[in-house]
Each structure stands twice: as C-alpha cells, then as structure tokens.
Design goal:
The structure holds two protein chains of two kinds. By secondary structure, chain A is α/β, with parallel strands linked by helices. Chain A has two domains: 25-53 and 73-77 and 158-248, Rossmann fold, CATH 3.40.50; 86-155, no CATH class. Chain A has helices spanning 41-48, 71-76, 93-97, 99-103, 108-121, 126-129, 139-152, 169-186, 197-203, 221-226, 231-246, and strands at 2-10, 16-25, 30-34, 56-61, 64-65, 78-82, 157-161, 189-194, 206-211, 214-219. In chain A, the strands form two sheets. A six-stranded mixed sheet of chain A has the order 6-7-8-3-9-10, sandwiched between helices. In chain A, strands 2-1-4-5 form a four-stranded antiparallel sheet, covered by helices on one side. By secondary structure, chain B is mostly helical. The longest helix of chain B has 35 residues, at 8-42. Helix content of chain B is 81%, strand content 0%. Classes of the chains: A alpha/beta, B mainly alpha. The A-B interface holds A 46, 49, 51, 72-73, 75-76, 80, 82, 85-86, 88-90, 99-100, 103, 132-136, 149, 153, 159 and B 112, 114-115, 117-125, 128, 133, 136-137, 211-216.
C-alpha cells in the first residue's frame, strides 16, 4: 500500500542521502528500516509523511501520489512516534494524546473516550496518568504515551523512528513484546526505523537493510540470514550470530 | 515631608503621565518586536538576524540622553514636533525593542527542533506549531524580555521631562533647577517605586505564564 518507485533524495551539495529506492510496504505489514547512522533510514521514513520531500521518483499510498495533495492532510492520516523528546513538555499526557483528534476536529466526548482508550491500550491507568506531565513519567511510560499518541487518530499507517531507542534493555524488551501484541490486534501498516538488528528481527515482518543511502536487501529475517544478497548483509547479520553464540 | 505632601496632586498627575508614557511605549515596542522576533526565528538567513539584532543593539548602546537629543535633532530636520509626547515615545520605543526582540528570537530558537518536527509530522499547520508549541514554550523568555524593557523604560522616561513629555522627570528637573529637595524627592521616590513594583509584578506574571510541567 506504500510504494516507493526509484526514489532519491539529494541535497544542495549534490550528495545523495538516499537513491534507487524501490520497495513496497503491504497493508498490515511491519517493515523495519535497519542501518547505521547516516545510512538514510530516517530520511526514507520521513519522505512518507513529507517531512522530507523526495528529489526524484514517486511515492504513493494506496495508488495516490503523496506529492499530489496537501501535506497536512497526508500527515493527519499517518501516525508518527519518535524517540524521547517527542512529547510536548508543556502539555499533559491527555493533551499530548489529543493533538491529532483535536486537529481532526473531533468533538469533546469522542476525544475523551479515545484518549482513555489509548492509555488503556498501552497499559497506563487513565485516571492516574491523564493529567500528569511528561516530565513526571519514566522513559518507558513516555514511550507508551508516544505510541498512544501515534494511534490516537486511528491512522492506517504508522511511522516509528527508534521509538524504543533510549530505553534500558528490560523496558525495551517489554515494549517490543507489547508492540507485537498490539500489532496482531490492530494490523496497522508500520514503517519502523532502528539501528538495532535484534529489534529489527523481533518486530519486522520484513527488514530492509540500508547502507550509504541504498537499500541493499529487503526480506524476512529468515531470508536475510539464509540468503544474504551481499557480503555486507552477510556481515551485518553475522554480527548477530556472533553475539548470540556468546550466550550459548 | 509636609512640603512633599503638598505636592500630592502634581505627583499624582506626573505619575499618571509617567505610567501612560511607559505603557504606550511598551505596547508599541511589543507590537513591533514580537512579530519581528517571530519572523527572525523563521529566517534562514543568519546574516539578516545578525543585522537586525545588531541595529537594535547599537540603538541600545547609545546613551539614553544622547538618543533623545538625537531624535530631537532628527525631528527638527524633518520639521516634526521636537517637544512633547511624540519624540519621547519614539526614543522610548527604540530603546525598548532589543530585550523583547532578542528574547523572542532566542526563546523560539532554543526549542528543540525535533519537537517542532514532531508537531509538523503529527499534522500541525505552521501557525499551529507556532501557537501551540513554540510560543507556549518561549513565553517565559519573552516575558523576561518584556519585564527588562519595562523597567528600563520607566527609568529612561524620567529623561523625557527634558523635552516636555511630562512624567516624573518633570518634577526631578524642576527640583534640580531650583535646588528644591521636595521636588526632587517627589519625582524620584515614585519613579523608583514604580520601577520596583513593575519588576516584582512582571516577575510574578512570568512565573504564572511559565508552562506547567509538574514536578518529577
């Protein structure tokens, strides 16, 4: 449902941020963009909601070219969650979650119901949390609110930029598991950016590996391990095997 | 003391003029500096920002008495009124610009750019990002600029008595010319009280408008 056709992004200095990007994210699928910093994974993701606009090529959602319409309208239909700083410190948890419903012009009652629903969904007690400020929450709790906010407008597509990046390993593990459970119920189309290969393999239906602005391979975790398309992928995946062997 | 009390009605009149002058100058300075600061915070050209802040900075370094004198000369050349409220207001507004302008600019600029990007990514229009995210987070810094400007303006407004704009400076100048301590005190005490009062009151407003974040 999200289709990239030979997409490239160049900046003024003529350097490619990404190039030759052609891939598809199917409805209800989680595609993880995996790569080191500077690989172009975040650029790729931000082109979907036009925070960055492609220089050449075409991106379409459900067959419609995303450059054709109004960017604000496009974004209102796409959930967006990022690492830590994402919550607005001057707004309560409830106000943060209500941002998109507000922008969509929902009535008060519908907003309130939705906010409580979302908090319950990410396992935070609505009565306890709705009037607190982000600064009063732990990192893991803030991340849950971030996910709740991304889901609040009931978008079909969700973009997540290292949403669990700044958490301690135990909390991250817990949130990853809950993400899987949620996804099984909600079946959203998700593009998820991470530099953590474990996270990528845990969460992605398919994983796309990016290196220096090119997508070197996209496939299921199984495919990447057993049929690496290049030396680079083999080495990247191999690093996991090495680490796992430490525990065996 | 009794002599000062006899001056009561005049003190009230001059205090009123002083507040009027300060308030008018501040209202005008805010109307100019706030939008200009917001505009600068969006400007991609750092040289434009440097030029505008530089010019207001230079105005600020000119001694206030010299600035008033300069405006009188300028107004005389342009055949505009050289005495009264108008030239006084021009001087006060020019002087009040910098703290508001600089604080509006830095108050908005200091906000984490990622926060603004998230706001955009969630689907806010640029004006919604400004009013729902940037200004609420910048308002304590902007208010601090307004407070500093106000206190300065109260001080500099005393000099405007020299060009017939009234205010408490009028009493002070009278006192200096005729060596009358009662006039001097009748001018200086209310001026000082007014400055202290505004400082305290605006500090309280600053705390009040500060976005609540709760305590961790």
């Amino acid at each position: 449902m999200i289709l990239f056709e030979d997409v490239a992004k160049t900046y003024d200095n003529a350097e490619y941020a990404v190039r030759n990007l052609s891939f598809e994210v199917e409805e209800g699928e989680v595609v993880v963009l995996l790569g080191t910093s500077g690989s172009g994974k975040t650029t790729t993701m931000k082109m979907v909601n036009r925070l960055i606009e492609p220089s050449t090529g075409r991106i379409s959602i459900g067959g419609r070219d995303i450059m054709a319409g109004d960017p604000v309208e496009l974004r209102l239909g796409i959930g967006y969650a990022i690492q830590q700083v994402g919550l607005f410190p001057h707004m309560t948890i409830g106000e943060n979650i209500e941002i998109v419903p507000n922008l969509l012009g929902w009535d008060k009652e519908r907003k309130q119901t939705r906010t409580r629903e979302m908090l319950a969904l990410v396992k935070l007690d609505p009565d306890d949390f709705i009037n607190r400020y982000p600064g009063q929450l732990s990192g893991g709790q803030q991340q849950r609110v971030g996910v709740a906010r991304a889901l609040a407008g009931d978008p079909q597509i969700i973009l997540m930029d290292e949403p669990f990046g700044a958490l301690d390993p135990l909390t991250r593990d817990e949130l990853q598991k809950e993400f899987r459970n949620l996804q099984e119920r909600l079946r959203k189309t998700v593009i998820f950016v991470t530099h953590d290969i474990f996270e990528a393999f845990e969460l992605g239906d398919r994983v796309a590996i990016l290196d220096e602005g090119r997508m070197v391979q996209i496939g299921t975790p199984h495919e990447l391990v057993h049929e690496p398309a290049s030396e680079f992928v083999a080495r990247f995946v191999g690093s996991v095997r090495e680490k796992i062997s430490l525990f065996q | 003391m009794e002599q000062i009390i006899q001056l009561g009605p005049e003190i009230l009149q001059r205090t009123y003029e002083h507040i009027y002058l300060t308030f008018l100058a501040m209202a005008m300075a805010i109307m100019i500096a706030l939008p200009l600061g917001i505009f600068l915070s969006r400007s991609a050209s750092s040289s434009l920002v440097a030029i505008v802040l530089g010019i207001t900075g230079i105005i600020q370094t000119v001694p206030s008495l010299a600035l008033i004198a300069f405006i009188v000369v300028l107004f005389a050349m342009l055949s505009l009124p050289t005495v009264g409220v108008v030239p006084a207001l021009v001087a006060l507004v020019l002087y009040a610009l910098l703290p508001i302008l600089r604080n509006t600019y830095t108050g908005i600029r200091q906000i984490d750019p990622e926060l603004k990007e998230v706001a955009t990514g969630l689907g806010m229009q640029p004006s919604q990002v400004l009013f729902q995210v940037e200004l609420p987070l910048a308002v304590p810094v902007i208010m601090a600029g307004i407070r500093i400007s106000t206190v300065w303006t109260i001080g500099i407004a005393t000099l405007c008595g020299l060009i017939g704009a009234g205010g408490l400076g009028d009493l002070i100048i009278k006192g200096l010319r005729s060596i009358r301590p009662d006039y001097l005190l009748a001018g200086t005490i209310p001026a000082a009280l007014l400055a202290v009062f505004c400082e305290v009151a605006l500090s309280m407003v600053e705390k009040w408008v500060k976005p609540k974040r709760g305590t961790a």
